[in-house]
Amino acid sequence: MLIQEVILENFMSYEYARVPFKSGVNVVCGPNGSGKSSLLLAISVALGQSYTERSRKLSDLIRWGRDQARVTLVLDNAKRGKRRPVPKFRKDQIFLTRSLRRDGKYWFALENRAATKAEVERLLAKLGVDPDNMLIIMHQNMVEQFTVLSPQEKLRMVEAAVGLESYRKNVLKAQKKLTRTSSQESSISKLLESAKQTLNYWREQYDRYQEKKQLLTKRRFLERELTWAEAVRREDIVKQFEAKRKKEQAVLNQIEDETKEVTDQLQIEQNQLEKLKDEWKNLFDDRLSLEREKAKSDSTISICQQLLKETAILENAIQSGNPTPLTIQGFEETLSTQFELLKSENLRKLIQNFNQQLPKLNTKINENKKTMESLEEDVEKVRSQVLDNRIRLALLQYREENTKAELKRLERELRDAKTYLDEALKKAEQTGPRIAVIKSVSEILDEIRVTDGHLAALSDVSEDIERMYESYSKLYLELKEKATLVAENREKTLEEVKTRMQAWRTVIRSLLDRVSLQYQKILTQAQALGEVRLVNEQDIEAAGLGILVGFKGSKPVPLNAYTQSGGERTTATISFLLALQQHVRSPFRAVDEYDIHMDPKNREIIANMLISTVKDENSQYIVLTPSQITFTKEEVNIITVQNIEGKSIIREVA
């Protein structure tokens, strides 16, 4: 994009002026103080420059006695082929205006619409125009200033002018990233070491906490084991009572069985004794009968014998003839009563019969006696058995009573034991499922006391330790992972720096090689030698642009403010600008008083080189010089500026 026209209103020495420009070389000439530099300064201000060599404040650039100044650039936006320089604006001209006020307020207008400085800068950046870059706009005295710049500043200025800043920015960005990554790696390394030490401390505390947790778990298990051990003990007590009750019940059952057996046996024996008594009574009755019968027989025999005896006596007395009256009377009475029955023959027979019966009776009596004696022995034996059984039965009843009392006591204790067991089981179930218990209650209590002692030694260990340890473990792992990642990033960034550095060196070398050839070509016409090269290329911060020049057959030496004369410095600088010309992005460039120290010959050589170099219709070069004698009107657009009574005016345009 070229500048077609500059319109100045109340700017410095200009009250109002319209300055037309063309493509190619535009020469603004006029005596010193005519307003040439003001024109270039106006262009710079309109393009967004905030600081100028002429004033610290832009308000100082307003014409004396005026409150406001304005500079308008008419930019060429005509199509170049199928595209316009700024496709956003579909017109051949773009008006860029900057207004200045005394109160210090400044603003831009783009196509008569208010615009921000950022919008203007974005527009100019797309076109490669930077008013602050002296390779684009070189104001008065900047030719000398360029020579005193450091090689590093010169190189950065060249990169900005030709549009290679992105390579440097990429390298610097990568280096900054590398520095940041290295710093981050160092910081993370320190943090990692610190975190490691802290983690070691918390790991020790965590180990103590884990020990405490294990002890607490063991303590809870021991409590659970204790409750179940107590339950088991209660179960054993219940089992013991049940075993005792079962045993006592068995004893009671045995006693009851024995009692029943003894009772039955006693009943049998009593029945047997009654039977024996009945038999003995019968035998006794039989014996009484036999004895009675025997006594009767004996009595009968005795009576019969007495009768027989008395009869015999009577008979004898009768026969002897001496019977007594009493005897005879008594006998007569007896005879009167029994005579019929007891006749002597009958008496004998009766006595005989009775005598025959007596042995049988005696035998029976003896048998009866023996039988009774045997029966009495049996009765006595049975009675003894009955007595024994009664004693045994009494003992069994006594044992039964004691056993029942013991059973009642066991039942009562068993109920109590079961109650305690239920409570123990309920308490144990609250601690957890049943576990096998292999230790006694006392052993568990001893172990609990030992565990409590260990826990007391760890009483200062809090639950926060686990959270702190996990937090620091997580932090340490994150830092470790981050350190690994940062190390990988550093390696990648280092490789990126090397790649971008190599890309930067390649494009800069290529650029400077071509610029150097053109530079040598231009200097040859001025009978000088020179070279443009990259110095300290291994370090982009220290890398710089080396401009060497040698006049009058001398060996080329670095261009600086001390080695060469003013004319030589100007010639070398302008030669470098012309050599760089075709690579600069900005279609618009300007230089003020480039030939101030040149001799006529070099001035003519540089003027011719400038004209021959700037032939492209898409480029524009504005040259400010006190004299136009080195240019012809056919070759360039000449603008003459004069100052008449404090006003700069455009005197002539050809």
Briefly characterize the structure.
The chain is built from eleven helices and 15 strands.
Structure write-up:
The structure is a single chain. The chain has 654 residues and is an alpha/beta fold. Helix content is 62%, strand content 14%. The protein is built from eleven helices and 15 strands. It has helices spanning 36-46, 117-127, 142-148, 151-162, 165-320, 325-338, 344-431, 441-457, 464-525, 566-580, 600-613; strands at 3-11, 14-20, 24-29, 68-76, 93-101, 106-110, 114-115, 137-138, 528-535, 544-551, 557-558, 588-592, 620-625, 637-644, 647-653. The strands form three sheets. It has a six-stranded antiparallel sheet with strand order 2-1-4-5-6-7. β12 (588-592), α11 and β13 (620-625) form a beta-alpha-beta unit. α9 crosses α10 (566-580) and α10 (566-580) runs parallel beside α11 (600-613). The radius of gyration is 78 Å and the shape is rod-shaped. The mean pLDDT is 84.
